[in-house]
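Render this sequence as a predicted structure.
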Amino acid sequence: MLTRPRATSRALASLAATGVLGALAVAAVPADLQTPTVEGAQFHRASAVAAHVDVESARDVVAAGVQERLADFIVAANASDVAVAPDPDAFAARSAAASATVTDTWSGRASWYGNAFAGRRTASGGIFDPAALTAAHRTLPFGTQVRVTSVATGRSVVVTITDRGPYVGNREIDLSRAAAEAIGIRTAGVGQVTLERLA
């Protein structure tokens, strides 16, 4: 009986190690050439060489695919809503405001000002940023923190007085755009609020 050449055995072992690829490669061999004949042996030798090349190529493709998928995974992980450690300064500011002592309480109407004043110098000397939680008041000292609560929505925000105003109508405080959004009065433009001065 004719035995398989060692090269053929090594090739078949390599094909078997590749799983589905190996199974497909073996299945592709015609049944009449799988018998131990001289023609079959010659075919197996040629198949072994081609299979060896295919296995090496497959390994390269798999390795490249793994690297590509790993890169995609890293990008997706970075782009996903992964929990991020909170800003310690912002957390400390919120905690301080929550535990601050209320020294005075009153009510009035609040309005807001935004992008039209962005980049302009405030009465306190700083630069106005619509995205910051600040406000303008006619008499409160600069740097005063005030908790503003919307009567309509019940939502509150703590703002820092950095500017003077408002000077229109009977409005009590002029909020930055971000502060107005926080308590839900941006769309309305004005709203009745309760103010608490914090110490």
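Summary. The longest strand covers residues 102-113. The CA atoms of residues 10 and 174 lie 82 Å apart.
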